[in-house]
Design goal:
The protein is an alpha+beta fold and about 500 residues long. It is built from 16 helices and 16 strands. Helix 8 packs across helix 9, helix 10 runs antiparallel to helix 11 and helix 14 packs antiparallel against helix 15. Bound molecules: adenosine-5'-diphosphate (ADP), zinc ion and magnesium ion.
Length: about 500
Amino acid sequence: MSLEKLLKEKGYEAVIGLEIHTELQTNSKMFCGCPARVFGLEPNTAVCPICLGLPGTLPVPNQKAVEWTVKIALALNCKINEFSQFHRKNYFYPDMPKNYQISQYDYPIGVNGYLEIETSKGQKRIRIHRVHLEEDTGKLVHVGRTGRISEAEYSLIDFNRAGVPLVEIVTEADIETPEEAKVFMQTLRSVLLTLEVSDCNMEEGSLRCDANVSIRPKGSTSFGTKTEIKNLNSFRALEKGLEYEIKRQLETVLSGKKVVQETRHWDDANKRTVTLRTKEEAHDYRYFPEPDMVPMEISTQIVEKIRSELPELPFEKKKRFIREYSIKEKDAGILVSDKEMAEFFEEAARLSNNPQAVANIILSELLYHLNESDVWFSDIRITPKHISDLVNLLESGKISSKIAKEVFAEAFKTGKNPEEIVRERGLEQISDDTMLESIIYEVLNENPQAVKDFKEGKKQAIGFLVGQVMKKTQGKANPQMVNEKILEILSNN
Ligand code: ADP
Ligand code: ZN
Ligand code: MG
């Protein structure tokens, strides 16, 4: 039974809130001059006394990181706090050289925003609770068979990531299904990519998501006890992890037990969540204002300047695509979900007088070939001009849609112009009446049984005959025309 049906049957609903972290790809780290892009570097080579937390050092905030956080908060429709402050969040863990993380507490940069998402059930607004700026921690490498801490022989520490600017985005618990959670993350990712603040690579950890989830009797207005799931490294893991956890909580409650508030780890290999640690409270962190930095004042002037420089966001782009190019709403939604794809479409659509046909080719042929060859738009040889040329060839009836697929495949592989491919390989559609007729007569003569069948009322025999003509012409005949001609000939004698 689907999870949705199961919940409905038992009279329960799920409540989900996400905490997302995204690493900013500024030139330098949050409070020192070390590089911020550290993924894949030799361990402990992008460090200095400041991000190693050595005594006597002082942090200097990265202005670009603050501006980018404002940018993210504005794109998420947040109010920007004019007064904002860094706090120390104290805890002891070996990947944190200072034994505290510089983060934000009661004065985050952005609050009270929202993001519109589009699920299979329509549009929905997910409120954003806050957007704040902090520093990332280092990384532990657990050496042992599984790479899990419980089975490690020893652990190594890499401080390269310590001090990388990190933005935390917290949603309100407005999300109701695992699918909504996934779509929210996908939408947020495309917003962040549009803002060019992070590469948002979930596998490499530059975009991370923790999911808070609880269940409650349907219609109840108070929240149930939540658990928090960590280690959700892909959209799929997010969806599957939530499905598993909702089911587990439902079974717990139905068997008369209580859900325990805790942090759970998504075990992707075994597709389940396991207990990581039980609840810590905010007061455990002994938050206090960072004494080494003055509070920040972000003036209205700066906020408005950043607002005026915001790029067109996917949601706005979608509306514009529908308006300017009259393409299907669903197609527009898919096209804007990726920045490179949207740009590619728009270039091709501008060159063509049939944007919908352009969209069709991109969303079918091009996506198919991209998936097959495991590349993305920046790596391909076929150009927007090729797509609009191909549409022209189709529209003018020079090639059939079957041949178009072939031409596309070759243009994709070689980067050759479609017109050139058609000319070189003699692929023009045969729309010449007399030529077509002579081929049709040949086929009718060679297939007396099918002709007989048709005349005796087996109308589907026509499909076979059309197929034979297409075969004889290597797909170059216009199937519509062939169909009409055969009907005409057979009903006249
Ligand atoms: P914590 O203090 O444990 O970090 P917060 O109140 O800061 O909890 O909320 C963290 C995230 O969990 C937010 O996205 C919030 O919407 C969500 N959340 C809070 N309570 C619940 C609940 N009972 N069920 C599901 N999600 C919740
Ligand atoms: Zn440093
Ligand atoms: Mg919290």
